[in-house]
Automatic annotation (TrEMBL):
Family: Belongs to the phosphofructokinase type A (PFKA) family. ATP-dependent PFK group I subfamily. Eukaryotic two domain clade "E" sub-subfamily.
Highest taxon, organism lineage: Eukaryota
Named cofactor requirement(s): Mg(2+)
Source organism: Zalophus californianus (California sealion)
This protein's name: 6-phosphofructokinase
Annotated catalysed reactions: beta-D-fructose 6-phosphate + ATP = beta-D-fructose 1,6-bisphosphate + ADP + H(+)
UniProt gene name: LOC113922984
Length: 766
């Protein structure tokens, strides 16, 4: 990048700030309805982004009730007031039901309280009811102000100055029951709570050969129950959107007894609290227990999770999601005009989008109407392609047809794990094996990676052999980082010997798990953490965003001693990011060094720091070097501690996300393989075309098969990373929330997208 380009970027940077200027504007943020983990991360992002662009931001305590009551319930927020809340569950500003806001008189009082503080921008974090109330308030706003003026509570100048109200919503709901977004804030954390309980229950159930009926939240939405069932390989699941067919009692008992006959020592049944039958009559966990005891005589226990699912620390996913949504919400408010309709900030694949609030609420209500009218297929369809895909995948993996009913393909499909072990690999293998068997293939397992492949460590693997694999960490098949290399001839010989028609490879250059680190609890101390990832800075960057880090050093953004120590105003390296479907370049401006930034921070009430370093970000600026530099430069101001996380990041049980992503992506891969094999059936065709060797992964918003030949052009093989990384566009977000001055474009589109917009590809949502 030459000097002229840098100068142009500086001009663009200034224009960006002017465009997003919040000077003279006031934003109110409130949480309403049921609480959800991650709400605090959203509140933090709204407050800090608002202050960053020059706006005043106000806490509205106790939701709409606080807005109606006014007084001390509406308080200006400061940068420090949202420190150390990223990792806290619930909502620090409270949430309450408010009957008064449902009346015009209540909304009149709320409008008066907001205008008194100059608030004409609302960020509402809640469910569909909360967002509907906000939209009604927005529509009535001008009429409410006129009425206040007529009553003598406001002059005409105030009415004119605050003539319209902008509203942006973020969905905070553990049920994931809002149409228009792939994931709502709190859902991933709730899944963590459920899976933790399921994993614990499975050990005691196996010991005593018990059946457990687990009831999870979801009065009107079965997402938690469905995804939990996928994640743990449950024997049966009850959902409000998809009631069991008539005669389900007998079918379920047959399924449970068949699993026991396969020497499975436990049964898990998951029930959504709103589960119903085809006549809309409730199906309760106690009913199911009584049925199992009466028909099968199994020792059966019921566990009702209740509000445990709402509690606890938010997951890394929810922290990142809420932070992205919060920043995007502020940008949407600043870009809004009097004609801009209320919108919802949503997640589609790995992209942030804005959708019309009214349409999203309408579709959400349409789902409930379909269930009330017993149009259950419509209810599943209206929930979205992701929900429908989850349900279809669960059915394929949970129920095995008798062997004489499966049409044989006469094809052998092998599956192998390569590269570093990663949580979710076993779930992917289980899914592939069962989908392959259902498609009529003979499934072969290859042990110990390419090395085992060359040595002939290949065995047939059956449906029951992969039972219970979803919750296991590491790789049961075994995996090594060795590449085929000199063993290609031996591998080819083994493929001929075992008549392998297709090969499914689970792995890659490096497979990364998510980390969560917090440096809270100690004053005047900076923690320096080294993460894994090879040359890929994803873990350091996203871990830093999830933990509220002050800095994250990565290979993709080169740095030198000036960035570490001396204050400069030079541009940092250019980072690539995707905008409106085109790769462009942006420059992140560094206006102060990390050490000086932390020194200034210690003078405030936030007296701690967190720095992450990717293990291969720089061969000279090692973790020890950075630790010593910070220790020396911070003498008398702060002390330092360092920690190298190492292989603990690859250990442990896989998260719900990894289990379900591994399950779904592997099932989709096997479907692709089956399609290719059918195309070649009877033609004697050899797969020599580029599209016969593909990599399946998320691209923007969809699961996409990309030929390896195409990926060669997009890959940095020396460092084993893509040439362009989508997540680099989120890098400035971490810096903004840590109070660095940087330029940042938040959304992939600053326009509202219609609800009916859906691509032809398969959705990437989990």
């Amino acid at each position: 990048m030459d000097d002229e380009d840098v100068a142009n970027r500086k001009v663009s940077f200034r224009k960006c700030l002017e465009h997003l200027s919040g000077a003279g504007k006031a934003i109110g943020v409130l949480t309403s309805g049921g609480d959800a983990q991650g709400m605090n991360a959203a509140v933090r992002a709204v407050v800090r982004m608002g202050i960053y662009v020059g706006a005043k931001v106000y806490f509205i305590y106790e939701g709409y009730q606080g807005m109606v009551d006014g007084g001390r319930n509406i308080v200006e927020a400061s940068w420090e007031s949202v420190s150390s809340i990223l990792q806290v569950g619930g909502t620090i500003i409270g949430s309450a039901r408010c009957k008064a806001f449902r009346t015009r008189e209540g909304r009149l009082r709320a409008a008066h309280n907001l205008v008194q503080r100059g608030i004409t921008n609302l960020c509402v974090i809640g469910g569909d009811g909360s967002l509907t109330g906000a939209n009604i308030f927005r529509k009535e706003w001008s009429g409410l102000l006129e009425e206040l003026a007529q009553n003598g509570e406001m002059d005409k100048e105030q009415v004119q100055k605050h003539s319209y109200l902008n509203v942006v919503g973020m969905v905070g709901s553990i049920d994931n029951d809002f149409c228009g977004t792939d994931m709502t804030i709190g859902t991933d954390s709730a899944l963590h709570r459920i899976i933790e309980v399921v994993d614990a229950i499975m050990t005691t159930a196996q010991s005593h050969q018990r059946t457990f009926v687990l009831e999870v939240m979801g009065r009107h939405c079965g997402y938690l129950a469905l995804v939990s069932a996928l994640a743990c390989g449950a024997d049966w699941v009850f959902l409000p959107e998809s009631p069991p067919e008539e005669g389900w009692q007998e079918n379920m008992c047959i399924k449970l007894s068949e699993n026991r006959a396969r020497k499975k020592r436990l049964n898990i049944i998951i029930v959504a609290e709103g589960a119903i039958d085809t006549q809309n009559k409730p199906i309760t966990s106690e009913q199911i227990k009584e049925l199992v005891v009466k028909q099968l005589g199994y020792d059966t226990r019921v566990t009702i999770l209740g509000h445990v699912q709402r509690g606890g620390t938010p997951s890394a996913f929810d922290r990142i999601l809420a932070s992205r949504m919060g920043v995007e919400a502020v940008v949407a408010l600043l870009q809004a005009t009097p004609e801009t309709p209320a919108c919802v900030v949503s997640l589609s694949g790995n992209q942030a989008v804005r959708l019309p609030l009214v349409e999203c609420v309408q579709m959400t209500q349409d789902v409930q109407r379909a269930m009330d009218e017993r149009r259950f297929k419509d209810a599943v369809r209206l929930r979205g392609r992701s929900f429908e895909s989850n349900l279809n995948t669960y059915k394929r993996l949970a129920i095995k047809l008798p062997d004489d009913q499966i049409v044989k393909s006469n094809c052998n499909v092998a599956i192998i794990n390569v590269g570093a072990p990663a949580a979710g690999m076993n779930a992917a293998v289980r899914s592939a094996v069962r989908v392959g068997i259902a498609d009529g293939h003979k499934m072969l397992a290859i042990y110990d990676g390419f090395e085992g492949f060359a040595k002939g460590q290949i065995k047939e693997i059956g449906w029951g052999d992969v039972g219970g694999w979803t919750g296991q960490g590491g790789s049961i098949l075994g995996t090594k980082r060795t590449l085929p290399g000199k063993s290609l001839e031996d591998i080819a010989a083994q493929m001929r010997k075992h008549s392998i028609n297709a090969l499914l490879i689970v792995g890659g250059f490096e497979t990364c798990d998510r980390i969560k680190q917090s440096a809270s609890g100690t004053k005047r101390r900076v923690f320096i953490i080294e993460t894994m990832g090879g040359y890929c800075g994803y873990l350091a960057n996203m871990g830093g965003l999830a933990a509220g880090a002050d800095a994250a050093y990565i290979f993709e953004e080169p740095f030198d001693i000036r960035d570490l120590q001396k204050a400069t105003s030079r541009p940092c390296s250019a980072s690539a990011y995707l905008h409106s479907g085109t790769w462009t370049r942006t420059t992140v401006m560094t206006t102060e060094s990390n050490v000086e930034h932390l020194t200034e921070k210690m003078k405030t009430t936030i007296q701690r720091g967190l720095v992450l370093r990717n293990e291969s970000c720089n061969e000279n600026y090692t973790t020890d070097f950075i630790y010593q530099l910070y220790s020396e430069e911070g003498k008398g101001v702060f002390d330092c501690r360092k920690n190298v996380l190492g292989h603990m990041q690859q250990g442990g049980a896989p998260s719900p996300f990894d289990r379900n992503f591994g399950t779904k992506i592997s099932a989709r891969a096997m479907q692709w393989i089956s399609t290719k094999l059918k195309e070649a059936l009877g033609k004697g065709k050899r797969f020599m075309s580029d599209d016969s060797i593909c990599v399946l992964g998320i691209s923007k918003r969809n699961l996409l098969f990309q030929p390896v030949a195409q990926l060669r052009q997009e890959t940095d093989f020396e460092h084993r990373i893509p040439k362009e990384q989508w997540w680099l566009k989120l890098r400035p977000l971490m810096k903004i929330l840590a109070k660095y001055k940087v330029s940042y474009e938040v959304s992939d589109s600053d326009q509202l997208e219609p609800m009916h917009h859906r691509g032809h590809e398969e959705p990437a949502a989990i």
